Automatic annotation (TrEMBL):
One of its GO terms (cellular component) is plasma membrane. This is Gluconate transporter. It is found in: Cell membrane. Coiled coil: none annotated.
């Protein structure tokens, strides 16, 4: 289990009166939308100006605001940014080798037109079970592009179900950091929470994925972009990696990360060589690095690429994601300014005074902190910390349901202060308005559906 992270460590005390912080946050978000949608300013610059706006209205020293922004930018670039870069290399190898074509041929060949969104939701859920959301997006994008192109449907129709699967696992199911830390904080049983989490996640993915994706695909029709297609020729079937080798390589980082999580549970001696080995190879950075190295063989040398072609493939994977890295990192900087201002703490204190059931309160706390900070993990940790006294005397199953209610709230309405919003915006090549109508509303459907299924489970457990 990870060390307990308290709400106080994540969200400091407000730096200004409540009305001032709330005004600053709302004005900054409105400014972002105006700059990006009306004035067509690059989101990277808009996020910097939005962060400064929060600080100015809150009355903070601008040097302090810049320090917060830089810290958030650096942390996001060092964490998510490195994973995106490695994932892009992996994805380019998958695309250029014909491995993505092999997966697409299998999915399209075995699923009818109506069945494709369901197949993509299942793939997203399986990949997302142990994998961080950002890594899963990068790994699945070439497959999503090709499925949309081959099936001649909107990228949204097949892409949203896959994103729903990824996001649901991130919010509801261990070993993701939010759920695992929440389990530790409130003293929930991991096995019970995992079982109930899967019961909630499956129908939630169905509602937010294939069902909502079909509606959103009619609202927004976008063709699959050519992000991974530059200089790429479709390889003949006999020159592609086999389906088994392709799936095995894709799942290798997944298995390594899952093995680490299992080892954390079953091995008591944290200092043992076995535990330390799993800790290293299961670290997302190391697991994905190993995946890239293996992919260089299975997707490179194994299909006849020489060293020059392999080097060109790796090198060409990075320029298309340069803008994504900057925007996602700037989103992390904007989030950190909000976190350091204390607006999340303020909203959490307001919500805790409400006289509602512990499940609704837990969900509402997570929603408010998610909206304020843009971080699902911070929302999960903070909301869980705030309801500790309320769950002290609850039965085991009900404590697990509180964890799931918090997880549902933590994915509510991803918007411009969430790095994931910009990741989807850039990979799907959507406008801000299109991203809100598709991704943001899908996250909202996922959150509300998750709460509904948690409440239904509370009637029978």
């Amino acid at each position: 289990m990870p060390a307990v992270v308290t709400a106080a460590e994540e969200l400091p005390e407000p730096v200004a009166p409540g009305w001032q912080l709330l005004t600053g946050t709302l004005v900054a978000i409105a400014l972002l939308v105006l700059l990006i949608t009306v004035l067509k300013l690059n989101p990277f610059l808009a996020l910097i100006l939005g962060a400064l706006t929060v600080g100015i209205i809150a009355g903070e020293n601008l040097l302090t605001v810049l320090d917060s922004f830089s810290a958030g930018f650096g942390d996001t670039a060092a964490g998510v940014g490195v994973l995106i870069a490695l994932g892009a290399m992996f994805a380019k190898l998958l695309a250029d080798s014909g491995g993505a074509d092999q997966v697409v041929d299998t999915i399209v060949g075995r699923a009818s037109g109506r069945g494709l969104p369901w197949a993509m939701a299942a793939v997203g859920a399986i990949i997302g079970l142990p994998m961080f959301f950002e890594i899963g997006v990068v790994l699945l994008m070439p497959v999503i592009y090709l499925v949309a192109r081959r099936a001649q449907v909107s990228l949204i129709t097949v892409g949203l179900p896959a994103l729903a699967g990824l996001s649901a696992m991130h919010g509801f199911v261990p070993p993701h950091p939010g759920p695992v830390t929440a389990i530790d904080l409130v003293g929930a049983d991991l096995g019970v929470t995992l079982g109930l989490g899967l019961l909630v996640a499956v129908p939630t993915v169905v509602v937010a994925g294939p069902l909502y994706g079909a509606i959103a695909g009619r609202w927004v029709h976008v063709p699959a972009p050519d992000t991974f297609d530059e200089g790429r020729e479709e390889r003949p079937v006999d020159q592609r990696p086999s389906f088994g080798a392709t799936i095995g390589t894709i799942l290798l980082p997944v298995v390594l990360m899952l093995a680490k999580s299992v080892a954390d549970i079953v091995i008591d001696d944290d200092g043992s060589v076995v535990q330390q080995t799993f800790d290293v190879v299961g670290e997302p950075f190391v697991a994905l690095l190993i995946g890239v190295l293996v992919a260089m063989w299975t997707f490179g040398i194994g299909v006849g690429m020489d060293r020059s072609k392999l080097s060109d493939t790796i090198t060409s994977s990075l320029p298309p994601i340069a803008g994504i890295l900057l925007i996602v990192s700037a989103g992390g900087g904007f989030k950190q300014v909000l976190v350091d201002s204390g607006v999340g703490t303020l909203l959490a204190d307001w919500a805790r005074e409400a006289d509602i059931s512990v499940l609704l309160l837990s969900w509402s706390l997570a929603v408010l902190i998610r909206l304020a900070t843009g971080s699902a993990t911070i929302a999960t940790i903070t909301a869980s910390s705030l309801v500790l006294d309320l769950v002290a005397d609850l039965p085991t199953a009900e404590v697990s349901l509180v964890v799931l209610a918090v997880g549902a709230g933590s994915v509510f309405f991803s918007h411009v202060n969430d790095a994931g919003f910009w990741l989807v915006n850039q990979y799907f090549r959507l406008t801000v308005g299109q991203t809100i109508k598709t991704w943001s509303l899908m996250e909202t459907v996922l959150s509300v559906s998750g709460l509904v299924f948690v409440l239904l489970l509370s009637l029978v457990v």
